[in-house]
Amino acid sequence: MIILTSPSKSLDLESSYREHIVTQPVFLSQTSFLHRELVNFTQGQLKKLLKVSDSLAELNYNRYQSWKQNHNLSNSRPALFTFNGDVFKELELQNYEHKEHMYAQKSLRILSGFYGIVRALDLIQPYRL
């Protein structure tokens, strides 16, 4: 069984996690193509495109400026531990062990406008799209 969910707008970029097995997003080359377009947007253009406040436009402008194609543990986090909306809070990840993370890796897919289809342990960088 495959479980599909959408990403969340809120992100957790601070909390620690125990899992050290990570993977690369399958559609990273397509994400890089999108990034090459978005990195050229001004803050004002991003504000209009994303329909966000000035502060969120600035935050996401800076995220796109600092985004790197090479995803590693110094600039990225596993999707399962990054998305922080209601669905992800209900998963109670702090109670998971390695076997549950591996099950999520096999069975959970997150549909992302920026990354495409993301597995639980795929490394992602902060974004909003």
If you compute it from the alpha carbons, what radius of gyration comes out, rounded to the nearest whole angstrom? 15 Å
For the biggest sheet, the summary is: 3 strands, mixed
**Fraction of residues in β-strands:** 5-15%
Give the structural class: alpha+beta
Number of strands: 5
Helical residue percent band: 25-40%
Low-confidence stretches: none
What oligomeric assembly is this protein in? single chain
The helix/strand series, from N terminus to C terminus, equals EHHHEHHHEEE
DSSP helical segment count: 6
Strand order in the largest sheet: 1-3-4
State the shape: globular
Mean of all residue-level pLDDT scores: 94
| Straight-line distance between termini | 28 Å
Organism: Candidatus Dojkabacteria bacterium
InterPro entries: YaaA (IPR005583)
Protein name: YaaA family protein
